[in-house]
C-alpha cells in the first residue's frame, strides 16, 4: 500500500503509533559553550557517545555540518545532564575523523567499542563508511545510528538489530520526485546515480516510482567517484534528449554534476534527492547551475518551523538560533546528528541505564519529532525518517524555497 502524499489528511502510520506511544524526545533548552570532550578518561556518570564522521575527504561537505549539529546538542544537554536512573549523567562525546575512508572508519569504530567503552556510536554520512562501522558495531553489540542514505544499512534486520538509520528511505523520496515530475508534464527522464550503496538504492526506487507514475526512464547512468571528470556523463545525458534529469548523489557530487550538465548545454529541470543538500550546494560556483533545481528533503530545510509553538517546533527554533549564533547562518541542512544524540539520550533515560543492550531496546520503541523530522522506530523497523517529514523545495534566488 502506498504511503500518503505530503499534505494528505489521511492518518499516517506514524500517527497511529503516536496514538499509542508518547513522544520520548528530550526538548533542547538553554545554551552552553563547553568543548566536546575526547580521550579515554571516563567519568563514572558519563554517557559515552562516539562520533565517527567524515570531517575531511569526499564526505566532508556533509560530515562537518553534522559535527556542528552534534556539538550544539551535546552542549545543550550537558547544561543540566540527563537523568538516568538515580544519577544525572553528562555526555562525553568522542569525535573521530574517518577521512571518508571505510577502512579507517572500521578501525576507529573498534577503538570506540574496546578502548573508549562507548555506549553508542553516531556517524557515517557516507554509506560505505557506515557499512564498515555497522560490521564492528553489530559484532560488538553497540548501538549505532547511521547518518548515511542507503536502505541496505538497516536490512536484513536479523543482521542489523543494533543498527538504526535516520535519513529518508529511498522509496519515499523517489515517490515524491516521480509525482513532481509527472505533475510538470515531463515524460522522459535520465537518472544520474552515484556509485555505491546510495546510488543503488536510488536506481531501484526511481525506476519503480517513475514506472508507477507513467514516466519513461530514458537512460540510467552511474556517476564516477567524487572529484572525477563529469564531462562525458553530461554529454551522454544531453544526447539522451530527456525532458528532465534526476541527480541521485550527495554533496559535493550533486553540485558538480549540475555544473557539468549546464556546461554541456542541458537547459532542462534538475531534480535532486535529499542527500544533495549541504552548504556547498548553494555555493557561488554552483549558484547558476542549481538555480531552479528541485529537491525532496526533510522540512527542516524550511524556516516555517520557526513559527511552530509545539515542543518540537520550539526545539527546532532553539537549535537554529544556537546554530546561527555559533556559525553566522543556518543553511537548512538536515541535522540528523542532533536527532541521533537526542534519541540515544532519551533511550538511556527510559532504560534507566547506559547499558548498550538496554539502549538498543529503547531505541527500537521511540516515536518522536526531531529537529530534522519525525521517526517511528519499532522492533521490526530501524529506519528511516517518516515520509510526512518530507517536502518539495526549489532553488530560488540562491535559496531553498518550499513549494509543497
From TrEMBL:
Q: Key word Signal present in the record?
A: yes
Q: Which InterPro entries match?
A: BCAA_transport (IPR051010), Leu-bd (IPR028081), Peripla_BP_I (IPR028082)
Domain (Leucine-binding protein) ranges: 49-376
What Pfam families does its record include?
Peripla_BP_6
Lineage: superkingdom:
Bacteria
Q: Which UniProt keywords apply?
A: Signal
Family note: Belongs to the leucine-binding protein family.
Query: What is the official name of this protein in its record?
Result: Amino acid/amide ABC transporter substrate-binding protein (HAAT family)
Identify the species of origin. Answer: Micromonospora pisi
Amino acid at each position: 500500500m502506498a504511503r500518503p502524499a505530503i499534505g494528505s489528511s489521511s492518518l499516517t502510520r506514524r500517527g497511529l503509533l503516536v496514538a499509542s506511544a508518547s513522544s520520548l524526545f528530550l526538548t533542547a533548552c538553554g545554551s552552553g559553550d563547553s568543548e566536546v570532550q575526547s580521550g579515554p578518561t571516563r567519568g563514572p556518570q558519563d554517557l559515552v557517545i562516539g562520533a565517527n564522521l567524515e570531517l575531511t575527504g569526499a564526505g566532508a561537505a556533509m560530515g562537518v555540518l553534522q559535527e556542528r549539529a552534534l556539538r550544539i546538542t551535546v552542549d545543550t544537554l550537558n547544561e543540566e545532564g540527563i537523568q538516568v536512573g538515580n544519577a544525572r549523567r553528562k555526555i562525553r562525546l568522542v569525535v573521530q575523523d574517518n577521512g571518508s575512508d571505510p577502512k579507517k572508519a572500521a578501525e576507529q569504530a573498534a577503538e570506540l567499542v574496546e578502548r573508549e567503552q562507548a555506549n553508542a556510536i553516531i556517524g557515517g554520512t557516507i554509506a560505505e563508511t557506515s557499512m564498515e562501522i555497522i560490521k564492528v558495531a553489530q559484532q560488538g553489540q553497540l548501538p549505532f545510528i547511521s547518518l548515511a542514505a542507503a536502505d541496505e544499512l538497516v536490512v536484513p534486520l536479523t543482521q542489523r538489530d543494533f543498527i538504526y538509520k535516520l535519513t529518508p528511505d529511498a522509496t519515499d523520496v523517489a515517490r515524491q520526485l516521480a509525482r513532481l515530475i509527472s505533475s510538470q508534464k515531463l515524460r522522459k527522464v535520465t537518472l544520474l546515480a552515484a556509485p555505491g550503496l546510495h546510488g543503488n538504492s536510488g536506481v531501484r526506487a526511481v525506476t519503480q516510482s517513475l514506472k508507477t507514475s507513467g514516466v519513461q526512464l530514458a537512460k540510467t547512468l552511474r556517476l564516477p567517484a567524487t572529484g572525477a571528470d563529469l564531462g562525458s556523463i553530461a554529454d551522454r545525458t544531453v544526447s539522451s534528449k530527456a525532458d528532465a534529469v534526476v541527480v541521485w548523489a550527495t554533496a559535493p557530487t550533486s553540485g558538480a554534476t549540475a555544473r557539468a550538465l549546464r556546461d554541456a548545454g542541458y537547459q532542462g529541470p534538475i531534480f535532486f534527492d535529499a542527500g544533495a543538500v549541504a552548504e556547498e550546494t548553494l555555493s557561488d560556483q554552483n549558484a547558476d547551475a542549481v538555480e531552479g533545481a528541485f529537491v525532496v528533503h526533510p522540512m527542516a530545510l524550511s524556516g516555517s518551523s520557526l513559527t511552530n509553538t509545539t515542543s518540537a517546533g520550539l526545539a527546532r527554533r532553539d537549535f537554529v538560533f544556537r546554530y546561527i549564533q555559533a556559525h553566522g547562518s543556518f543553511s537548512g541542512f538536515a541535522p540528523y546528528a542532533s536527532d541521533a544524540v537526542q534519541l540515544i539520550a532519551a533511550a538511556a533515560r527510559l532504560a534507566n541505564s547506559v547499558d548498550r543492550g538496554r539502549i538498543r531496546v529503547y531505541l527500537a520503541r521511540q516515536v518522536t519529532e526531531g529537529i530534522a523530522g519525525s521517526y517511528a522506530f519499532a522492533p521490526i523497523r530501524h529506519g528511516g525518517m517518516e515520509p510526512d517529514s518530507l517536502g518539495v523545495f526549489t532553488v530560488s534566488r540562491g535559496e531553498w524555497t518550499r513549494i509543497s
